[in-house]
Amino acid sequence: MLGIDRSGFYEIAETIADRDGHSVYAVREITLEAPGQLYRISLTTTGSHEALLSRFENIVLPFAQLRHSQVPLLCDAWVSEDFFDMVLLIPVCKPLSLKGPNPFRDADEATRMYFLRESLDFLAAMHDQEITHCHFREDCLGVDKRGVLYLHNPGIAERLIAVQREEDDDLGSSARLKLSANMKSIDVACWANSVASLLIGRTVLTYEYEEWDETELKKAETAIFGDLGSASALGKFLMQCLKGRMFDSVGYNSAREALKELDRIPPVPVFK
């Protein structure tokens, strides 16, 4: 069951985002003085309150069991009359973006492969718990002052907001993405899009996976092989990930399966 209201245990430092139906705050846990983020989702559904809370638990409880040193820890989750609140403990790190530091492209060969593997390992750890991310993009990743890569945004808030709006495919509500049974494969495709964009230094495909088509994939293929080389094993792997199971492709059933293939690929060449 979801816990009691523990909002008094957290000091709000600033508002990170304030959007329709939910807000995100930077907080500090008072006892441990640990940094984190508080997600507050408005309970505006017209359906059964008990049914909604049950659906929230179906997502929150598996994530609470996830243990990965570089993935945010779910610290608290509770429900008030008007809000669902959730606190994630997130290390202080700077989210990656194409306009900022880009360790995927600028690092040495060994570090670049480490970042590629680690970022896919985050997804694999979630998939092992039957958790899907749904909105993986490069600003979900962050690097701390030591150069350690973290999953800065595990996507759980987006999933809960989708539940609130009755858009979550895996829970039997209205369809939002094609082939909803293949959400893990879609996660892998979105991961590949993000890391390919970081590797070549420019956006490969839009973040909206359902908007991809064969023409867009062909453009992505040209961009990836144009940068990594036409014989690049990594380029071929990334394209296989991008196609997923949406385009009559074999794809990968999960991040764990894709990770095994990535481990067989030689290090990518150093960019000049």
Give a verbal description of the structure.
The protein is of the alpha+beta class and 272 residues long. It has helices at 49-64, 103-106, 109-128, 156-164, 183-200, 214-228, 233-243, 255-262, and strands at 10-19, 22-29, 34-42, 73-79, 83-89, 94-95, 141-143, 149-151. A 5-stranded antiparallel beta sheet has the order 1-2-3-5-4, with helices on one face. Helix 3 runs antiparallel to helix 5. The chain starts with 9 loop residues before the first strand and ends in a 10-residue tail after the last helix.
Low-pLDDT residue intervals, each spanning 5 or more residues: 171-181
Mean of residue pLDDT values: 82
Q: Using the coordinates shown, work out and report the CATH topology of the largest domain.
A: Transferase(Phosphotransferase), domain 1
Instruction: Tell me the β content.
Output: 15-25%
What's the count of strands? Answer: 8
Instruction: State the CATH class of the largest domain.
Output: Mainly Alpha
Named CATH architecture of the largest domain: Orthogonal Bundle
Biggest sheet strand order reads: 1-2-3-5-4
What class would the helix/strand composition place it in? alpha+beta
Question: Distance N terminus to C terminus?
Answer: 54 Å
Main sheet characteristics: 5 strands, antiparallel
Shape: globular
Q: What letter string, H or E per element, gives the SSE order?
A: EEEHEEEHHEEHHHHH
Approximate helicity band = 25-40%
SS summary, helix count: 8
- CATH superfamily grouping of the largest domain: Transferase(Phosphotransferase) domain 1
Radius of gyration: 19 Å
Q: Tell me the count of domains.
A: 2
